């Protein structure tokens, strides 16, 4: 994951999430358009979803359930919120 800030055409600071293949170090994807750095990123167990937390959340960690039906979000205040994942 590379979080070096970039400047877009309007000279706004952008934080992009880059995904790399660790076997050959090639970039395989880039998620653009974040205005804030990501503090925690988690893949779902089936590797089909990515969850991202930035500084707009008072959260410090995230984790998917093994059955991929819920996500736990741990807050910096010591609380944990568990949300059901709804597929569309």
TrEMBL record:
UniProt-listed Pfam families: WD40
InterPro entries recorded: Quinoprotein_ADH-like_sf, WD40/YVTN_repeat-like_dom_sf, WD40_rpt
First and last residue of the signal peptide: none
Superkingdom: Eukaryota
Protein's UniProt name: Anaphase-promoting complex subunit 4 WD40 domain-containing protein
Lineage, broadest ranks: Eukaryota, Amoebozoa, Evosea, Eumycetozoa, Dictyostelia
């Amino acid at each position: 994951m590379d979080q070096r800030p970039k400047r877009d055409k309007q000279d706004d600071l952008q934080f992009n999430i880059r995904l790399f293949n660790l076997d050959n170090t090639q970039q395989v994807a880039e998620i653009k358009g974040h205005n804030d750095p990501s503090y925690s990123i988690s893949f779902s167990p089936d590797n089909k979803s990515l969850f991202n937390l930035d500084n707009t959340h008072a959260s410090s960690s995230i984790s998917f359930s093994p059955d991929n039906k819920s996500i736990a979000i741990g807050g910096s205040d010591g609380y944990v919120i568990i949300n059901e994942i709804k597929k569309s």
